[in-house]
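Case study.
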Amino acid sequence: MSSDSSGGKPNRDELYETAVREFGRALDRLAAGYEADPEKRHDLRQDIHLHLWKSLAVYDGRCSLKTWTFRVAHNTAVSYVTRERRKNTGLVSLDEIAWTAESGEGAEPEIDRRRALRQLSDFIRQLRPLDRQIMLCYLEEMDTAAIAEITGLSLANTGMKIHRIKTILAGRFLEEKRYV
Amino acid sequence: MSERRETNDAGTIWRNQPEEEVTVQLEQFIHRRTMEIHSSTRSEILMSIGAAVFFFVVIMLRTPAPGDPLLDIGLVALVVWAAAVLYVFRRQFWPRASSRPDATATTGLEYYRKELERRRDHLRIEWLWHGPLFLASLILIAVIFGRSFVGWASLRSAAPLIALLAAWFVFGVVRRLRQARELQRQIDEMGR
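After joint prediction, the assembly is written out as follows.
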């Protein structure tokens, strides 16, 4: 899978390698946010990489490589969720969702952390695609502008949704903060 | 202040989740997608031919009386058409045996592109591989309702069913052509 390089401009393979090096782990987590089953998640991850590699042929640098990578990754994952219609039923928006925290009183910090991760993952996978995108970007420490650029939402709308996410997460983590 | 710290904890947990020891192998993925496309193409043809054969058997069982010109001509046409389809699409059944010797030496992506092109071509001529089924359906309708060319009156009674079948056939062709256009778009993207 090679691409011709033209002048000083990085070619598709170089861009892909850079994207994987810098955002590969985040892409893995993104896939985890969309698919719980390890085997299917592996397929989704490969699908994301394939689409990313293909899309980089037309990358023109008008947005950052990070924005491009996450846009492609989210769009691929959303298409995947749409294909898996069975899972589409029961998805909710940020306004409708409620965090049902399990009580882990007395548990070891490591067990507690694992349980928190599982709950967080389950929580994310209940969200509708757009809200899920925002949640995942937020957890990756992206700022409002970057999230708005990736999702295509307005800054104000993105800000409102992030505020809602913060409220939900704070509500849950203020209840249990033994792992802090 | 506290809210910010707590929500950051969720981010910390999320970002520090254990890594999965799985490598992304695009070649492997492309190969699997290629096989899936090939498999669906093959099963479509086989199902279409199989359905035509099924109708053929139904016609034979429903109209045991020999010497019906409509039935004879129709069934010969059906068999010839089905044989032609099998011949035209023979490479779809045994792609490895009939492909060029250097086919496996191409990159996975090139191989995938070729399979997409093949799939596109397959969809563009859906009328050809769906034809036997369509023809068999028409014969069945004509024979059952028309009772072998006795008169147009009984054929007229079958008109709604024939119209429905024709509409289904046209809808199928249009849908396949749309899918072929989508595949063409994917192929164009890969060429960039």
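Observations recorded in class. Confidence is low (pLDDT under 50) at residues 1-6 of chain A. Chain A has eight helices and no strands. We will return to this complex in the next lecture.
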